[in-house]
Amino acid sequence: MESGGKKRDVPFIFVLRWQQTQDVGLELVWMKNSTDPQSIPCAANAQASAEIRRTDLKLGQLNYQLKLTGADAEQARVSSASLTPEGGAAQTLAVPDGSTTLQIPGGATAIRYTLAVQVRYQKPDGSLKYLRAFTYALRYSGDVNLELQYTLTDGTSQTVRCANGQTRTAQAIKRDQLENDTLPYILTFTGGDADSDVQISSVSLFRSGDSRNLTLPAEASGSVELAVNRDGRTGENTFTITAQAASGEQYKFTVNIPYTPVGGEVQIKTNLTDGEKVMNGTKIMLTVEAWHEAEAGGTRTAMTASDTVVTLDGKTVQCDRGASGDGILNIPLFRKTRRRAMKTRTFCASSAMTPTGTTVKRS
User: Model confidence over 238-254: pLDDT tens digits?
Assistant: First the structure.
């Protein structure tokens, strides 16, 4: 360097600092469905995140292994680990492997856990002894829901959503909104665990209209006949669906579909006339045809043997549905005494098709 025509030497001093680093990482290995290992890597003094679904574990049991990785893994060991639920107390875990149980609080669909792991590193000569921290943020979820979808005769589609362990009631369906009282339906699972191999175990239906419990196919779609109550009030048709995941986790959903009669007229027609005489020892076939005519559009719906009650002299007689399936009921009669057939006979249609305020006509 020249200054004022003179040369000068200017010294420079460089300070180099060398710090030895260790190549040590951690993998959290846990067993999905008890047989499928899942690995989550994490760097030293860092955090990794993962989600574990309730359907991945059998009864919430998490089997794990804390596995060290990297070139210097042989000089390191896991010294401690703890698991802390959100808003709860820390739990000390066995190292380097063990098991623990994860739980979702009642009324919640998920919970967050923090897994804190300490790793000690030491060179073979005993020097450089220190700790490294690894943190995992684990989300444990179990939100499986059910959707029951059906389509009415006017083409509109309705969907009822139900959470696991809950009961939901759909909007009431009027009897003229279904064809032949038959409800076609589709069952779909939704939510975080819906794609975790959740399968339908059973489908059943309780009908208050006839107090029957029906076992339906354990399939994602089907159809079933609904019923209204015999006293003319809205019938409750309650579906119960159970399901199970590959991990063994079980689910239950209850969906009630009210089924209500509609206004209009119930028509009853017989093949005998009032005042007709029946001789002793005569066998006759009494034919009863009954149907319901809705107020709107004049829709005619045939009444079945279960919908129609026929009494003769105060006693209920057996009704057999006609072979044509058109709602005509045939009743064989044998008269031992001479009397007027219609005068001593009383016909009535059951309230299942005759709601309060409905006009009943007989011809």
Answer: 999 999 887 677 889 99
Task: With H, G, I as helix, E, B as strand and everything else as coil, classify residue 44.
Answer: coil
Closest-CA residue to 186 (of 158, 167, 165, 214): 158
Backbone dihedral angles phi then psi of residue 200, each to the nearest 5 degrees = -70, 130
Compute the distance between CA of residue 209 and CA of residue 236 in angstroms, rounded to an integer: 7
Each residue's pLDDT tens digit, 303-358? 665 556 667 666 776 655 544 444 566 666 655 544 444 333 433 433 334 443 33
Q: pLDDT above 90 covers what percent of the chain?
A: 44
Better-predicted residue by pLDDT, 165 or 66: 66
End-to-end, the C-alpha distance of the chain in Å comes to 129
Alpha carbon distance 248, 256 (integer Å): 26
Strand partners, 321: 329
Closest CA relative to residue 45, chosen from 65, 30, 24: 24
Nearest to 331 by CA among 313, 342, 319, 321: 319
Three-state secondary structure call for residue 140: strand
Check residue 338 and give its pLDDT. 42
103: number of Cβ within 10 Å: 14
| One-letter-per-residue 3-state SS of 326-342 | CCEEEEEEEECCCEECC
Residue with tokens 């999905």: 32
